[in-house]
Amino acid sequence: LMLVLVFLCFFSSMFITNDVALLTFVPFACTILQKCHQERLIVTAFVLQTLAANLGSMLTPVGNPQNLYLYSISGAGLGEFVGWMAPYTLVSGVLLLLVVFVLSAGKRRISLETEALLQTPGAAGRKKNGIYLALFVLSLLSVARVLPWELMLAVVLIVLIFTDRAVFLQMDYCLLFTFISFFIFIGNMGNIEAVRSVLQSLVAGRELAVGIGASQIISNVPAAMLLSGYTKEIPELIVGTNLGGLGTLIASMASLISYRQITAADASCRKKYILIFTVFNLVFLAILYQIR
Question: What are the φ/ψ torsions at residue 72 (nearest 5 degrees)?
């Protein structure tokens, strides 16, 4: 059960991002564990799912926002990017396996009534799922530079206008404009000579360590955007900001999704969750840092 819940996040985050993987499978895990009467596992499951989402998302350009941004400015091919991150992802998967096996050493028989969880979508639901799957494939082709992003964007907008116009009212425009503001801010900061010289001297040759350190304070997406203008060693920065997603609770914004879920389910678990989360993250970060 724990293997399924954890590795759903690990593998799905490679394609649908760590944020979406956690938004989807953390509530799912909570429901499953409650129906199995295994509430004792919720904190551990949420911590491991968060770790898994942040670790699995390292592998691909679409795994998380900073990867997509750094991939776009690196000029690297898809295979080259995956090659940079594959060793870290492989070791992460093995570590997660070991942790799950150790924590699940005492096997227990559990039962789950699956009928209440299964819902068969109607014809309209299947049609909508098919449309979104096709648009998702187009988006992946655009990231792989098979299709120009302008064409992909136009197709997605036109299709949604005619098939699911209501989705435009559900978009997080605040988040979208926050990213736009980050780009404007960083562009302006890069034009200040004093700031440019300090950051260049700080980052040069230390992209991995600075990427990890900055991520602990301002989160890895803003760190990637801020530091990318002051180094040509983008591969090192990619590794640094991906590993930088481990550590503190704010190192990856995706981690806050699980934290909000656990506090909503049981506010008394807040301190326990932060303690277990921090210990696991620091241990994983220390091990993965040795691979460089």
Answer: -65, -30
